[in-house]
Predict the structure.
Amino acid sequence: MKKIMVGLICFMLAVSVLGGCGSKKSNPDTEKKNTEEQKDKENQEQNASEKTEAKQEEEQREPENIDETQKTDETQETEEQDNPEVSENNASDDLIMKTLKEQAGTHDYTSLEELNPEPGSRIAVVVKNTKTGFWKSVEKGMDAAVADLNEKMGYKGEDKIKLTFEGPGAETDVESQINIIDAVLSENPAILCLAAIDMESCQAQVEEATLNGIPVIVLDSGVENVQVNAVCATDNYAAGAEAAKKLAEAIGDKGQVAVMTHVKTSETSVKREAGFTDEIEKNHPEIEIVNISHENEETSMTELAEAVLKLYPDVKGYYCTNETAANSVLDIVNASNKEIKVIGFDAGAKQIKAVKDGVEIGVLSQNPYGMGYATVIAGVRADQGLENDAFINTGYQWIDNTSIELPEYQNYLYQ
């Protein structure tokens, strides 16, 4: 009996040991499966790591051999976000572009339909200066036209149309402007857009551009040269006459008035002065123009205005032919505490405040945004051999304290 019991116990112990050993033995199929899953996981982690490193290297890589005057895609996208006018042109419902479309001439300078510019084309722009609100608004219009052309053509990266925008520090610095034009032409742009300080100073540069097959589009101020393809500007004579009518009405069609003009050699100055003086002399016999001052390098316009008010203390009205002239006159009029009616061209920040405060009775605001847009379109048309109007009229608006807050006029304000 004891032998039987001992045998059973030994048998049970043997089964127990075998069972325990069986539980620790690995399954070959399971082990193989686990190994493959581990390798897959490691491969996925390695691929993800490589992709992350490649992305970081791409983000850190700087664009090479890019001219400082050219905008990178990232910069242009930032500017478009900061300036809604640039990225949201769609000008069919915009008053400034509607005016341009209706008044410019026989061609539509808001349309891109016929335009197929070459990839990588460069448009060089040289203006009177780059600091005032007027010229900043012109640049916005040009940037918008270039952005629209690139979008239409699907150009990206190096294929994008580029635009450079340069000018001297002062609108009296003819020599610096000539030097800038010479430098620009040496780089052989596809198109030259030019706002000349002096009507006669750029003859050689216009001729050089024409000889090299570079079409010249003049904006704002004309140049006395038949080789210019088109002039894109305000009808300055008509606007000057309009200013005379508004000022005459404001002073009761009687009394002394003075005129402050910008550079005498600028076509815009000449025509705005002529339109004003002709209208006064022909149709307002009881108004006397006692002084006409011109911007120059020797005496500031503020000093000129101050001298005029001392010499002619009975002046009732002051006409100014651009933003800088208006700002200078407004400073002196405000300091004098006299009741003088001021009227001016352009619509910079100081003028806007003066109109709202009733110090400036109103402004003849040009269409700088539309002027910039139309100039680029005209340039591309000329480069493709398409016809342009000899004079592209960008229009203007009379804005006073009854209209300066209206939404449709906001793009006429240079701010």
